[in-house]
Structures are given as structure tokens and as C-alpha cells.
Amino acid sequence: MAANFTDRVLATAPLMMLVERLRRVQGYQITKEYADGFGGAIFELIHSISFSSWGENITIHFSIYNNTQTLVEIKSECTLPTQVVDWGKNKKNVTAIMSYLLNGIMVSRI
Description:
This protein is an alpha+beta fold and about 110 residues long. The chain has two helices and six strands. Strands 2-3-4-5-1-6 form a six-stranded antiparallel beta sheet, covered by helices on one side. Strand 3 (about 40-45) and strand 4 form a beta hairpin. The longest helix is centred in the last third of the chain and has 13 residues, at about 90-100. The two termini are about 25 Å apart. About 25% of the residues are buried. The mean pLDDT is about 90.
């Protein structure tokens, strides 16, 4: 199993606001966007190969928690399935995307 990192938070923001922000993210390529069947949305992104990694696959799941809050779960996993050490690249991806998405939004840890 490839090295990975996951984080989830509860954001005080409507789901569609977060979806629109994610569609404008820089430095990552959105490869898929689809509904989860329960009113939420799932995005699949990639971060390309660099000097420090073989690339990462990133999955972001937005789910409606209540009228004013959205559950945000982000998982970054090395593209190479046999890679067991990521030198912190997956955590860096998750942290960067969370920071971008949740800038100015009240967040609770779950």
C-alpha cells in the first residue's frame, strides 16, 4: 500500500461555496468531479511528478453535515503503489489544499 495522509474537518460554509473554490485551485489538476449520491461531491486531483516524488493522487469528499456546515475530507496518496515513504509530501498536499479551501472559514476538527 502506498504512503498516504488523510485529514477531515467540519467547515462552516455551504458545500457549493467550497466546490467553487476548489474548481479554481492552482498547482493541482482536477481529473474527475462527481456526485456521491447523498448530496455531496467528490473530486479527484493529481499532483504531477517532481524531484521529490513520483506524484500523488488526491481525493476530496464534500458532504453536507447540516444547513450551514460541510464535512471536508482530503486524502493524498502516492501514485506509485510500492512507495512506502513520502517524505511528508502527502501531508503537505493536504495542508496546502485545506489552507486554500478554508481560508477565512470557521473550522472544527472531527
